[in-house]
Every structure is written in C-alpha cells, then in structure tokens.
Design goal:
There is one protein chain. The chain is 43% helix and 15% strand. By secondary structure, it is of the alpha/beta class. The model has no long low-confidence stretch (mean pLDDT 96).
Length: 252
C-alpha cells in the first residue's frame, strides 16, 4: 500500500517543488512556529509559499505556534494572546490552502485530577469553537499533537470533548516513545481520530528527533494496517538524502 508521506522543513529555502513532485512527496512547513517573526516577514513568507504551492501537487501542512501558549487558560490575558496566535496561524493555513495544520495539545499531564482534566477539556472545546469561528474558511484538518502525555487517555478525552469532526489527532511517534505506553496502545485508543503522524525517534529519554530505525517503521506500518487507518505521515527529522529516504518510504 502506498503511504501518503510528507517531509517537515524548517525554512522555505529547503523546499524544492520539482523534487517533491517527482518523488510524490508532500511538505509540512514549520517557519511559522517562530514567535519572533515580524508581520512583514510573515507576509513575505506567505507570498513566497503561495508562489511555490501553486506548482506543488502533494498535500501541504503547516505547523502552528506552540511556545508558552494555552488557548484554554483561565487567565484571560494568556488566553487572548494564545487564541490570537492560533487564529493567525489558521488564517495563514487558509491562505495557503493547507490540507493540515498542527497544534500541540498543551496538556499538562501533572494536572491529572479528574475535575481539572475535565475542566481543561471543556475550556479547550470552548476555545477551539472560538478560534475556528473566526476563521470559517479553513477547509483542511486541524490535528492536535501529543507532547508530554504519558498515555493516550488524556489526548483521547480532549479530542472527544472538543467533538469537532475537522479537529483530529497528530500522533507524534517520538513523543509517545518517551512514555510507558507501547505504540499499539496509542494507535488502538486513538485509531478513530488519527489523521496525521509525526515520525521520528529517540533514545527513550530525550526528544532527539532522529531517524526511526527500520524495525520501528515496520512496527508502525504493521499497526496501521492492523487497525485499518491511513494517516498522512510526516518525517520530522533531518533528512540527508531526500530521494533515497523517500523512495524507501514509498516502497510497498
């Protein structure tokens, strides 16, 4: 089965549209995670990406901002600036006709008392309804990424509380590896919500974003087939030889 593969890039200068088209490869752009970009720099990047994306035939994804943000915060000032950042990113994704936009879950797994978890989920639902209400023209999927969660339970509860069909899960394989739950638990519990995957690996201690070894990729593919799900897979680690890397992933 042919997989839908994207490559993550940090800057626009890394994108060679002709090579991506030749390889049947999509792209996830991560320029807009940088919090210090000026409005002029953002506008310039959007115009440049619009030009490049006119010729790109494969899926396009954008990673939204995440540093020090909490759109469901009980503090109104933190909530306001966080939602402003999210709305801006969602508008950029709309302008670029992106198929996906990635946001972090912003879940603190230490705040696991049931009342607090439920409150956070309900406030997150309200925040997301507010955010997408301001950018109604976005036609892609919003995918929420696990970061600090130790198991899939908290992310599953969040997604099912938000309960918006276009808001789904980005399963980050490297982040899941830093907790005790095996990958099959994550896929089995979240299978109805997974639309996107960040693929990278680590030593089980640090979030290193290194290439996943062959056996980890084979395990992932086997589990995706077992649970009959077909998410887009974004390679979130430095790729030294794009053609060699992608041809291996495109192989059946």
């Amino acid at each position: 089965m042919r997989r839908n593969i994207l490559n993550c890039i940090s800057t626009i200068d890394e994108l060679d549209v002709s090579a991506y088209n030749r390889l049947g490869l999509g792209v996830e752009i991560q320029d807009f995670t940088e919090p210090n970009l000026s409005e002029a720099e953002i506008e310039g990047l959007v115009l440049r990406y619009k030009c490049l994306f006119r010729d790109l035939k494969q899926p396009k994804s954008l990673h939204g901002p995440f540093l020090d943000l909490k759109p469901s915060s009980p503090d109104p000032m933190i909530r306001a600036i966080s939602q402003q950042r999210y709305r801006k990113a969602l508008q950029i994704a709309t302008d670029l006709e992106a198929d996906f936009i990635v946001f972090h879950s912003q879940i603190n797994p230490q705040l696991n008392e049931p009342f607090l978890s439920d409150l956070n989920n309900r406030q997150s639902r309200d925040a997301w309804l507010e955010i997408i209400g301001h950018v109604p023209d976005f036609r892609g999927k919003i995918v929420i990424e696990n970061v600090f969660e130790r198991t899939p339970a908290m992310l599953k509860a969040l997604i099912e509380t938000i309960a918006v069909p276009t808001i789904q899960v980005n399963l980050d394989i490297g982040h899941s590896k830093l907790g005790p739950a095996p990958l099959e638990d994550w896929i089995r519990e979240l299978k109805d919500h997974i639309a996107y995957i960040h693929l990278h690996s680590n030593n089980g201690i640090h979030d290193q974003h290194i290439k996943a070894p062959k056996e980890e990729i084979e395990t992932l593919y086997r589990l995706l087939d077992r649970y009959d799900i077909h998410p887009a897979i974004a390679l979130e680690y430095p790729v030294l030889d794009l053609e060699e890397e992608i041809r291996a992933f495109m192989a059946d």
